[in-house]
Design brief:
Elements lengths: L12 H7 L2 E7 L7 H4 L3 E11 L7 E7 L3 E2 L1 H11 L3 E2 L6 E3 L2 E6 L4 H7 L1 H17 L6 H12 L6 H9 L1
Antiparallel strand pairs: 1-2, 2-3, 3-4, 5-6, 6-7
Helix pairs in contact: 4-5
Length: 169
């Protein structure tokens, strides 16, 4: 739990740490206030840090976009991820494109609507971001899983009466 930071505590004692599969820490990013007039939504950005996970390496973080009308927005968060990775091109907000898909233009102010209604925008966004997002996930090699399953077969199985004898000790 070193990732939670100095002078930060997690309420609920040890149980909240041991029982939870994932623990996230959300920190507001200063200076990221978005307005309807300039950005197409009212909201702000937060950094979501993975403090504890049973399925991935702790310490990773990502920026999520919070729309005050709808909550966390996956389309705007995906756009922000692409922007951070340098995958957005175009000089004007109404003529942006994803690198490698220069023929598919979109209006950044209306990105959520275009992402939902235009399949080519959705495909371009996924085509450039999914490989990078997938690379951030932890992976278990198929051979390693097979070895683990094989080693589990060699562990002797206890019968019900043997389990009861163990409980009495």
């Amino acid at each position: 739990m070193n990732i939670i930071g100095i002078n930060n505590i997690l309420m609920g004692g040890d149980a909240s740490v041991y029982y939870a599969n994932n623990i996230f820490k959300n920190v507001s990013i200063g200076g990221t206030k978005a307005t309807k007039e300039e950005d197409g939504y009212d909201g702000f950005a937060i950094r979501c840090e993975l403090v504890k996970s049973r399925t991935n390496k702790a310490g990773h973080s990502c920026v999520l976009i919070y729309d005050q009308a709808k909550g966390f927005d996956p389309a705007l968060s995906l756009l922000q991820f692409a922007r951070e990775e340098g995958l957005i091109g175009g000089a004007r907000k109404n003529a942006r494109y994803f690198v490698g898909h220069e023929d598919v233009k979109f209006n950044e102010k209306d990105f959520v609507n275009e992402f939902l209604t235009r399949e080519e925008v959705r495909f371009a966004a996924h085509d450039v971001t999914i490989p990078l997002l997938t690379s951030q996930l932890s992976k278990v090699d198929g051979d390693e899983i097979a070895r683990m399953n094989e080693s589990m077969k060699n562990i002797p199985k206890l019968k019900i009466d043997q389990e009861a004898d163990l409980d009495m000790d």
